[in-house]
Design goal:
The protein is an alpha+beta fold and 211 residues long. The protein has helices at residues 16-30, 34-43, 109-125, 141-151, 165-170, 199-207, and strands at 32-33, 65-68, 81-82, 88-89, 99-104, 130-135, 158-160, 173-174, 176-180, 186-192. 32% of the residues lie in helices and 18% in strands.
């Protein structure tokens, strides 16, 4: 999906009440809840690929999100998804250093708007942490590959979850970004879009030892 620099080919929410409340809030913050996901994907619509803005004009400094620590200490789900080589992979494969998992979709405007800042984070911190963006598009590579070609990201590679296995196991809205420690335990998550180059994101990453 991703057209990497130098690469010319594409390879193919503790107690029940707080968790439930977090999911309800998540939908309103992120703007791309599961109902909208079904509607958008059924119609085949896609978000615009635009550097720092969503298609509705929301700039990076007005991104809306919430930080959720209600699942801190919980192990990463065992759900399988597809890697850049189209082989099945789970989050367990990334243990050994901190991992930031971003669940997104091409039709989700907030997801698309934050992607360049996430790519910048992956470029800068690639040696100290792993950053992966797992697309939740039901059409899989058919829509995600062209998106990556046009986006011209530098570090993020294409991961696919057309069955929404990770979304079903760990989130209720898009975008959702989950930070796991080197042992695969969740520290926090951001529900909604955030500027990954901003001060708030830097403070969050510092909690996980990324300074």
């Amino acid at each position: 999906m991703l057209l990497l620099s130098g690469v010319s080919a594409i390879r193919r929410v503790p107690s029940l009440f707080p968790a439930t409340l977090a999911l309800i809030l998540a939908g309103s913050v992120a703007g791309c809840d599961r109902q909208k996901a079904d509607e958008e994907q059924a119609s085949g619509s896609q978000a615009n690929i635009s550097g720092g803005e969503a298609k509705d004009g929301g700039a990076i400094d007005t991104f809306q999100h919430q930080v959720d620590r209600s699942r801190a200490g919980k192990a990463a789900p065992a759900a399988a998804f597809k890697g850049p080589d189209d082989a099945a992979v789970t989050l367990a494969a990334f243990r050994g250093k901190p991992l930031l998992v971003n669940l997104w979709a091409t039709w989700c405007a907030p997801c698309v708007a934050e992607m360049p800042t996430l790519d910048a984070l992956a470029t800068k911190e690639g040696s100290r942490m792993t950053v992966i963006a797992v697309a939740q598009d039901l059409q899989g590579a058919e829509v995600v590959d062209p998106w990556f070609q046009k986006a011209k990201l530098k570090a993020l590679q294409p991961y696919l979850d057309p069955e929404n296995a990770l979304l079903d196991a760990s989130a209720g809205a898009l975008p959702t970004s989950i930070f796991y420690d080197a042992k695969g335990r969740e520290l926090w998550r951001v529900v909604g879009a955030i500027d990954w180059q901003g001060q708030e994101a830097k403070a969050l990453l510092a909690e996980g030892g990324i300074r």
